[in-house]
Specification:
Blueprint lengths: L2 H8 L3 H8 L3 H9 L6 H10 L22 E7 L5 E7 L12
Antiparallel strand pairs: 1-2
Helix pairs in contact: 2-3
């Protein structure tokens, strides 16, 4: 999920989200528009603040390979509204992952 999608879905403003992760609102705006990719420290804050719904890979273009996962999420934390958060994804043991060759 993109950061823009997350903010829209949760009705959170860029300004409020920026305050939660400790960056200026303009920086969040640049993340949303794809003009900047967060540094690792800030990326960790974004992942934590969104309960893993926005991940590092969401800031990069998707590969051309289409892959449907039957991964099972582990729900052990809750977000600020008390809903379960995705904290870990474990692939199903029978699933084979395709190799992506550049």
């Amino acid at each position: 999920m993109t950061l823009d999608d997350f903010l829209s879905e949760t009705n959170e403003t860029q300004s409020a989200f920026a305050q939660r992760i400790g960056v200026p609102q303009g920086t969040v705006g640049r993340y949303v528009r794809g003009e900047r990719i967060p540094r690792p420290l800030i990326m960790g804050r974004i992942i934590h603040a969104t309960c893993g719904r926005v991940s590092a890979s969401d800031f990069y273009p998707s590969p051309a390979v289409e892959h449907h996962s039957s991964a099972s999420p582990s729900m052990s934390q809750t977000d600020r509204r008390g809903r379960p958060c995705l904290t870990e994804v474990r692939p199903h043991p029978a699933e084979k992952h395709p190799e992506i060759i550049p």
